[in-house]
Amino acid sequence: RAELDLGAKELDKDAAALARDIFRGIGEGTDLLLAGLAQELSGMLAKLLPDERKVALSGLGDKQLKVEDASGQDRILEWLSKGTQDSVVLAAKLAIALKTRVTPGLLVLDDPFLSMDEIRESRGLDLLREFREQGWQIVLLTKEMRLRDKIQRLFPDARVHDLGEVHGPIPGPKPAPIPRPISSPDSKPVAG
């Protein structure tokens, strides 16, 4: 009986060592993947910002992305200026698009330049032009009407759709009325 228990303990020990090695390998692979993505993100961000910034990515959570600010301090995304935040988010979307697609695909971007200054906005549009030249299709949604001329100048074949302003409720079918219970003269009100 003791030999069987000892044999079972040895098997458990071997299984635990194997599981440890597997998880260690997965962790190392993830570290390499995140380091590669951080490097891609840094390269994309360098095309948007006037100075080069280091990016550290230890995971995919809010606090796991750190970007060097203009003074050289590592900061989480929420502690960066809004224009830098928008630049990082655009750079991340573009880096991930390149990393996950073998061939060009479709980029859908919703107000990517909203808080960027003129320099970052122009650099961002130039970067999108590079993507377009590589064969990417780009759908850019924005409420910034001033971008129209820039977009038409940089993307001469672009189709611009002006959806206009919507005032008040969005037109459409009215919802059906909510049916009310029918009461009879004998019914008593229910306290609710």
Strand content: 5-15%
User: Based on CA inertia axes, which overall geometry fits?
Assistant: elongated
Radius of gyration: 28 Å
- As a percent range, the share of helical residues equals 40-55%
Topology order in helix (H) and strand (E) letters: HEEEHEHEH
Residue-averaged pLDDT: 81
Distance between the termini: 69 Å
Structural class: mainly alpha
Low-confidence stretches: none
Count of distinct strands = 5
Largest sheet, order of strands side by side?
A: 1-2-3
Number of helices: 4
Largest sheet: 3 strands, antiparallel
Overview of this protein structure:
- This protein is mainly α and 192 residues long.
- The protein is 46% helix and 10% strand.
- The protein has a 3-stranded antiparallel sheet with strand order 1-2-3.
- The model has no long low-confidence stretch (mean pLDDT 81).
List the helices and strands and how they pair.
Layout (H helix, E strand, L loop, with lengths): L1 H45 L8 E3 L7 E4 L5 E3 L5 H19 L5 E5 L7 H16 L3 E5 L5 H8 L38
Parallel strand pairs: 4-5
Antiparallel strand pairs: 1-2, 2-3
Helix pairs in contact: 1-2
Characteristics of this structure?
about 190 residues, mainly alpha, three-stranded antiparallel beta sheet, two-stranded parallel ribbon, 4 helices, about 45% helix
State the gist of this model:
By secondary structure, the protein is mostly helical. It has 4 helices and 5 strands; from the N terminus they run H-E-E-E-H-E-H-E-H.
